[in-house]
## 1
Amino acid sequence: MSDYLTPNAQIAEPGSFPGPDAPESNLPRPDIQRPAARFPPGDYTELKLLIRQKGLLDRQVSYYTFQISLIAGLLVLSLAFLLILRNSWLQFLNAAFLAFISTQICFIGHDACHRQIFHQPQRNDWLGLILGNLLLGFSRAWWTNKHNLHHGKPNQLDLDPDIEIPLLAFSEEQARTRQGFPRFVVKYQAYFFVPLLTVEAFHMQFHSIQFLVRERPRYRGIEMLLLGIHFILYPVLLFSLLGPWWAILFILIHQALSGIYLGLSFAANHKGMLILDKENQMDFLRQQVLTTRNLKAHALTDFVFGPLGCQIEHHLFPGMPRNKLREAATIVQTFCQERSIAYYESGVFQSYREIFQHLHQVGAPLRAERRQ
């Protein structure tokens, strides 16, 4: 199963890369956009100047100190439940709680890999190593490499690894290329999407190891050491406290719910939005905005989805600290409106309705073949 989920990513250097209408539903229609003329780069330069003048790219160490302390406190609480609770059934609730914490740790790791937190790049790198490799079992180098490729060409066929997933298709062209078991899954992918996410955490861990074995990124030795510590301490702790069978169930629940939470959080950003052909020449500003969906501002939404609620602003300014994204959104939205650039945001439930509707529509041609 992991092999089917492997993104077809190339190797990118570490660091951060700086819809048509459907009247009946008012949804952005994720058709493939054919090559378009380039726009002059002045728009993005002007926008970035506005953002910089507002101080929105300045580091926010105090904010992240609070965020890290909060999640660390929740992690300690979950570990305390492991030590204190004697009812094994209640530990399954703890596994769900730990899945929430793990995804929040991943969000902070995401910000660290974008070097949003500290002024010194090395401190961001080390925080990413601790959060990703040690606590989650994900390689910082593997994730940064894949994520940078995504940021460079979001929703662009053959160039964005996040839409090059063999068990899914995000355009009819992709769907028609699937054969065998993947073709069957794509036919009904709207139903399979969430079940597939249950193995996403395992998939990320597997490909983290595979990446470090095949490639030689910076900190490779340290990454392998921290992964080794994670994959020893995590099961040993659970097996010693819960016993073998309960520990296995705890791991399965924890990892499955982590994958679902993480996958659905990232899906809300781009899935169901404009898909670009490989040869498309759209400029940076328009590609980042037109292929991306924001979630409407709400205190609960911004907490649950972490840095992913304001994805348009994050894609335009990957180094912007999380707590400045909403302020930037008011500037970006006005800027886009003045230039007739479609800026799209929706509520959480509306975004998922659009995602599953899109997945179902993409698989329709394959289902039609069966009826013929």
Note: The chain has a mean pLDDT of 89.
## 2
Amino acid sequence: MMSTIKILVSESLGNEGLAILQSQHNFQVELALGLSQAELCQKIPDYEALLVRSQTQVNAQLIEAGSKLRLIGRAGVGTDNIDLNRAQAHNITVINTPTGNSISTAELAFGLMIAMARKIPQAHHHVRSGQWQRSIFKGTELSGKTLGIIGFGNVGRLLAQRARAFDMPVVVHDPIINQASAKELGVEKLELNSLLACSDFISLNCGLNQDTKHIINQNTLKLTKKSLFLVNTARGELIEPKALLAGLDNGQLAMAALDVFQVEPPDPNDRLLSHPNIICTPHLGASTEEAQRRVSTLLAEQTIVFFQGPYGSKINHL
């Protein structure tokens, strides 16, 4: 007879994934939404698995408290909120769902590019306020403009496909991909400085690490074309806020679209929220019905793979 596996879900996982987990007779699944860090630390010692999204901070203190933990699962792409080194030191496997929200995030990034190029949010508010001055909303076409993608993983590749359909030449910077692979995918691989110099639009689609933190800063913005359009749907820390605001104020940047911020939710007084040339969205990259269903089911299936053997998709060890 199989022993009972206790699984703690600290954030909303999605009905589909929960149903899969709860269908396993030896799984005891408990939802514990909205707990403080201290409350989680008190609760975690009884559980073999912890499933989270992006808000739960699985730090050293929580991992140390989880004396029975064997698995930490993140329903999403990154693992910025999980102390991977501490988990490894305790022989805890960490998994995530890197492909679950790729389409949704790529579509959002492309939508934000169109919104910036045609000044759609500003025009919307203009008309809603009872005005009708078309001349102040003259935009730019995407066709023929070069898109630079920093980080050419799942999201970056899907974004490139959509950009090429709009007749945009695509250049990419990613230390992992080689030139031959890039060519096969219809893009050109460039070093960062070259990408900055030739791009009309830049989309950030890389992970956050010591090499990418504040990859957009005062020095790198000096290398870009004048009136650059910048999109960030990856991690807020990729952009240095003061440099972004300065670039918008002096015209180096035409507009920026931010779906992510260094602190979420951001301070209501943060100038990033009020600058007229910034479009802000509240971390919507994965916020579609399809993405939520995929990450939920993928994480549930991988959890079963870990504890019980082959089921569904292959497990994604980090």
Note: Confidence is low (pLDDT under 50) at residues 310-318.
## 3
Amino acid sequence: MLAEDDEVVNDMKPKVIVLRTAGTNCDRETCYAFGAAGGEVELVHINTLFEKKKKLADYEILAIPGGFSYGDDVAAGKILANELKYKLHDEIRDFASSGKPIMGICNGFQVLVKAGLLPGFNGIDEKQRVTLSFNDTGRFECRWVYLEKKDNNKCIFTKNLKAMITLPIAHGEGKFVGENDDVISRLEKNGQVVFKYEDYNPNGSVHDIAGITNPYGNVLGMMPHPERYIHRFHHPRWTRGGVGEEGDGLVIFKNAIEYVKGKA
């Protein structure tokens, strides 16, 4: 009976909610990535949550995909961040504090920092401590980059990930900065820096930071797009050899799925 019960747990499909709103444009890719990783994925417009037609608590993983939410008016991700902070504050707080995985990619990362979910020194911070500002190059950067995975035993998204991975970026406001040097030092000392740009920093981020997590490792924000490298043929050099069967990004999604399955 124990073996049968274990098999049922392994076959479960964690419920993933991928939020979209006006200007979101990486939602379908993010849905596909979580589906390929073994999740049961639902694409939900944020108004559906505001209107109480669906409840965030009914899901086990939350993803905020890339794009240009609300046209990035005011600042990239700011309007959507305010909606989460002021219209869904309790639901988001409960979701994060329960240990459920939350992932913000590119514009989603911008949303998480401006909503106060990251760096999350005090849970959902009332004060924004970091931001993602205009690239030092003064232009939109769209290219592939190498990322160094930093040692972080708490981060649920990076288990068994290679020390060096490659992913594409596509952003105009990806420069990671803190309100002061103490915030950056605290992130480093806490082991909350998950990814750093290796060899080339495309936006001028302080300390080459490309992705961070909260102190508990269940909330991840990153500028590169893991959902755009799920299969080997997504890589520009896939016909020339040296590329694995699975894309580097797929592991990140699988880790979130396996984490939830392991908690069931």
Note: The radius of gyration is 17 Å.
## 4
Amino acid sequence: MLFLVTGGTGYIGSHTVVELLQDGNNVVIVDNLSNSKKSVLDGITKITGAKISQGFNKLSENFFYSFDISNSIKLKELFSRHKIDAVLHFAGDKSVNESTDKPIKYYQNGVSNSLVLISEMLEANVKTLIFSSSATVYGEVASVPVSENDPVGSCLNPYGRTKFFIEEILKDVAFKYTDFRIGILRYFNPVGAHPSSLIGEDPSGLPGNIMPIIVKVASKEIRQLMIYGNDYDTIDGTGVRDYIHVVDVSRGHIATLRYLLLKTSGDFLTLNLGTGNGYSVLELVKEFENISGIKIPYKFSSRRKGDISECWASVEKAKKTIHWKAERNLSEMCLDAWNWEKSNY
């Protein structure tokens, strides 16, 4: 089968491309390279052995195009040239902090661009979509673990609101087009890298997520880790999150695709992708220190606006519905992230 992957050279997108190719499928990757590098394609090829053509020259069964999905003309041309079976939509910005400073950018690249993509999918009669959502749609949770039935929409930052708004748009699309098969996957905190160390998390500029900051502190590219808040009502005062290996997240997409593509009519499926376990920032730091043998200097600072004290997933629905669960533990997440850093910088 042939799948369109938007944001396919990004962190989660690239790992999902690997899983799709290793599962015997072909891919069309679209990425504007605003927060990723074209060299990721080399890593994907080394892992999978799959050749990826760049542009419309047909040299293989897999393709990469560098453009923004806001470009409806190029999307239209892509859908006319390729018979796409389903779309996996990762494209968009992903920093909670940046979204607070640049809300217009996040609404444009998230909500507006998604509308362009969905419109072109409908015109091309492509009606299977998996959307990369986030646990931030839950906002300040009343209790943990968080289930898919818990309230959403009281988001604490523009990043979370963009995800929530796109989810609502997709609900309306599914209501109108009853043969549309939609999977919404709410990630908790993807970390780690491919075990080969050929692809991993490689943000442009200063990292916005905790694991790439920790590994860059370990490699002395960053002086120390800033921990925002040590007065939460948690085990050690620092925020608690559900960290999940990026390969497990990627395989969750494969399981969701298999489920949706077996449906003979429309479906609207919302799932959490997490481990079901919560770890504090200090627990994560300690585990990384144990794995790497390197002391991570850190400094406490005041809480950031938009942060919550604790959040981890209920994962029972994913287990029952798509027969998926996370398999990698916190030690493996830290080890793969550190090996990626050592191998590439």
Note: The chain has a mean pLDDT of 95.
